[in-house]
Predict the 3D structure of the following.
Amino acid sequence: MTKPVVAIVGRPNVGKSTIFNRIVGERISIVEDVSGVTRDRIYAEAEWLGKEFSLIDTGGITMEDEPLNQQIRNQAQIAIDEADVIIMLTSIREGVTDADEVVAPMLYRSGKPVVLAVNKADNPESRAYSYEFYSLGLGEPYPISGSHGLGLGDLLDAVIANFPADLEDDYDEDTIRFSVIGRPNVGKSSIVNAIVGEDRVIVSDIEGTTREAVDTRFVTDDGREFAIIDTAGIRKKGKVYENTEKYSVLRALRAIERSNVVLCVINAEEGIREQDKKVFGYAHEAGKGIIIVVNKWDTVEKETNTLRDFELEVREEFRYLSYAPIIFVSATTKKRLDKLPDIIEQVHNNQNIRIQSSILNDVVMDAVATNPTPTDKGKRLKIFYTTQVSVSPPTFIIFVNDPELLHFSYKRFLENRFRATFNFEGTPIHIIARRRT
Ligand code: GDP
Ligand code: GDP
């Protein structure tokens, strides 16, 4: 469940984002990018030799009003706090710099595994100079070239050799993992505190791995088990970088990764902001169950259509989340908060529905009967067979004569038919066209 985290550290211009993009690659998403989220590439999933991991470019987490050396220190600290393995990136062009000499001892002292990479080693002659980087005391320097894609294999071999042996989340199948996501001050920690109210038993806050220690587990009166992911990140801690937007986004992305269901919190008092869209869009793309929570509803002066109007606005701003239930709550008055565990559980169930192929194919046939398949340049889409291949999110493969013919609009039509027939509230569903062979 939990993947190892790798962070790239290094001063500006050594090539961090170039390497980040190289390692992440152009991984083709099976989901259409309907959310239109322009992703700040500071966090992404990557894979090497079948080993999956999360990659962080700490260079993307900037603190504008701090001097450069302090920023680099902060970034190194983030890597030390968040990562299982750190790639320290330097550049052969400039050789060992003062900034490198600031960062290297910090990383060394942290005890975290560090792999030292020397970038911009574009040709064999320059590779020889990488030996001078032994002076940083971080072991063997790996010469690489981000722009030419050289040496990355050896570097990644060294990175995965340092992965910790066991990173399993110690939650059993029955524990529903959810996170609470939203901008600062929307009321995340108030919501968490209210959910984990007096009448609930906190199972454990500390046992197990360090990762679990940041979560809060609780059991409802009727015995259902939940874990709120990264409550430590929600409750304030007081490190310098924690107040930066990028860091809080990063933290949210990591929490989403480990969740079954994500509560996307909006502040009714302030309305919807750009930053909301970024993290909510990521939860959508990650295929998680999603519930939109409009908090601080007590602050809104209500007239006849206030709730309906607000709901329309949310739907308009988050078109790609049309499947997500919206709930209006107040963490202060506790209004409707008691409904959350039930809704979370329901969405989790909907994520895990398995539909029999026979039923599915009947639905598709009926759909085609009411709305004939599209044609393109005289060629008509033929649907042969549909089958569900996975849950969380429910994913369907449709075998067709030519996948190109299954246009977005027809796919959307089929999705709507599925949604009208089965209860997929709160979960994205993926429909993939495959050529029948
Ligand atoms: P960052 O600030 O550390 O994220 O660095 P960037 O990835 O933005 O790269 C800074 C500059 O170095 C860009 O102009 C890149 O094109 C260039 N660069 C990155 N990797 C290499 C490399 O392997 N060789 C050379 N010659 N240039 C590189
Ligand atoms: P977080 O930064 O998202 O964790 O937000 P907090 O839970 O710390 O809440 C930020 C502020 O909003 C605090 O002053 C809370 O008391 C207040 N707040 C949270 N929920 C509500 C609510 O439902 N109604 C009102 N009126 N204030 C709230």
Q: What stands out?
A: Residues 10, 12-18, 59, 119-120, 122, 145-147 surround guanosine-5'-diphosphate (ligand 1) (CB under 6 Å).
